[in-house]
Amino acid sequence: MIGAETVLERIALHQTRLHTPGLGLDSKGVALGGKGLVLVPSIDRLVALLAVYTRERSLEDLMSSLAMHVVKSKLGTREITIEFAAESSDRMDRLAETARLVGGFTFTGTARHFVQYRDAAAPFGYDATELLSTDAALALYHERFSQTYDVERAIELRPLILRLMPRVDPQTKLEPGLRILVAEQGLGPALVHYFVRSRVEGEVGVAEWPPDSAFDETPVRRWIFRIPDLPTRMRPLMHDTPGITCFVPAGPGVAVQAGHRHPVELRACPVFDPAGLVLVRGGGEEPWALPRLPPMGALSAFARVDLRTEGPDLSASSAASQPQIVRVPLRMAPSTAPWKKVTATWIEPAQIPLLRRLAYALPHQTIAQARMAMTSRGAFVRSTEGIEAIPLGTFFVEVHPNLYVPAGHEVTPAVAPDVLARALGAPAGQVLFLGTDARAMAVEEAAFAPMETALLEAPPWEPVVAEVIDRTLEEATLDLRVTSIGMLPLRGVEAPPKAET
Amino acid sequence: MVNHPGAIAQELFRSLMAPLVLGGAVRPGHAIGARAALSLGEMEWVCPDADLETRVQAARVRRARRLVPIDALAAATPAEWTLAAALHDLLQAANPGFDGALRRSAAVRILELARETIERVPGPVHARDVLSRHTWFGRLLDIARTDTTVSWWVGSQKFLGVDPPHRLEIWPELRRVNVVTTPRALLELAPLAVERSRLTDAVARLLTRTPLTELATCTRQEPAFTWSETALALVATRAGRTLALRALAALPPGEVDAALGRATRELLATRRAAGSPAVTLLAERALAQAEGHAPRPQGVAARAEEAFARGLGAAAAVLMLERSGAAWTEDERRRLLAVLDPAARSAAAQEATAMLGGAA
Known about the structure:
With 501 residues, chain A is α+β, with helices and mostly antiparallel strands. Helix content of chain A is 19%, strand content 30%.
């Protein structure tokens, strides 16, 4: 109901008697109820209110009493109320100023009847002279309207914050300080060794999430890195590598993907458990939440350990001379034998652009059968049905499970593949490629992903953002639409008043 | 159109002012009239659609930031409301519905009142007002009507500024339906119930009330650019010249030279005493081009007006360099003089200097 006449009256200085139940005067003489209430017209205004308020103050003192509801008026319009303990006129003043900025109205009251909070026109506030007789949950009295509302549903702060999509802000990539990296399972060990080799200090752990769908039986595992001071030279790699997501801490227990900024200052929102971790991702992806942080170990503990597998533990000195062990280095020699089981190719980084172009010409069957691993040495592609359909790189023959030698070459001395595999001592889960210089490259088997997935990885975000910016800046055409001129096109069209001389 | 000023303002904002800034469909309705237009700015109006108002303000700031690094613009001023109402009536006068017996006089009356309304609006007095008006009316000349001709195997029908009914486009293969859409700019609309020259004159008068728009569209075909009092007053100030130079930098330099040259030649021939701001603008433009801060025209001037603007600008710039030498180092001045010298010695420059009475 929109009141035709105002039912509010301004409270005068030294006035003591008030009509509105639950409304009293504080020490300054300002009308104040037990609660404050802000009415905003839409969810975006609510977010704006939170964004503006949290820029300078924390929500911590409000949290215990904060309640947000979607309310419905008799006319069916839906608005949003934010209720909180009024406590003092200082707090109310702050919230009223913020609400005014975002187009909201501020009220105060105790139970059901809320009157407009004080403003410049009424420094001591307002009192309702006539109360609405209603069963509605809320009755709001404002200078412009009096309205009753029923509560439709509650809005929780934490789900609301987690549903808000962070805005793109490349500046956050440059901010110094702690970084949290999340790497897909296949990338984790490589990233650990990269950090250890580069002497980057930090902690690492493995976290598990429930499977994405009911058809997956195993949980999704990802590696979590806490790097206190990520070197600047490594940042572009961490930001741009598919499978690695970099986060910047935005408060206790919460971090936002680098290159994005949450619309609300999360540091001021005490809704995240400091013992857990919520990782807010950009691009509309759902956040990753960890109720409890997994055990983390120092990166140095994961450094590669080499054990001597042969020989005594101690070498005792002896006068007698020991016979020398006959060992010769492995060599690769060209062979005239016909090529069999050519099932892998190594495409060096310089040839990757060619592979990208070739991808458009490859038949579906080839792409579907091939599996590819991207490494710093280039791409390794394997296909059990033969690799000849991809005419790029150095071809390899599988001489033993997970052991490849270059096609057209053979190992010398001519040992059996089993012996060669044992001699190389590759652990399970590693695929070994012997180059023509007899050096072995080991690629983790888990790093091989279906080629069709690898080919369709998302492009870097910058071009996408540029498109968005272009679209935003694009000006729509001005289309003049013709409307009916009506029966009396000159009705109400009057000449200007005579100009004063 | 209802008579209450608040309702008129709401309808005007929704149907014209917001689309003028955001783009989209402009739907002029019942004519507003001069009296209501002049009273629009006097009332206090709050836009009921806060979201639309926010988007309009953001788009205005975006347009302003092409010229000046500002973060906020005030809401529409009374003068802007009045100009918007006048533009509304001007567009309504071009409604093809008036092109019929016993109706033409109504369109003529509406256009006449719109012209009178524009005359009552004072020119801007501050660079901020100039910029604010430009953010509202900067795309005034981009308004175009889409005319659609639908032809089928036994006939055809033309629709002016309205969508053809769906029934005429069904079974396109069987009925051999052919749809041709033609965008028509505001000053090319046909049929018109008013004289085209009167409509063009009204648009020209409206442009004089927003001088930055007048300068930023100086390369237009119709109404041809001439130096109005408000445009001269704008470029007579330091801030105004900066705004004008930035607005001109977005246009093809050769076309700008031709438009400014033609208008300045006419100005010097008829009102030489008032020509000083225009000459200063041309001089600063020539200096900016010589320093590489503004796009330079390629090749020699193909038209006499173009050569006139370049010659006059270069001659005045040389004089400026000689008089206020302290602003440049000796090396810079020599380099600038070397760049400006060919144009400053051209025949067009000599003609311009002669028109100025040798005092350029």
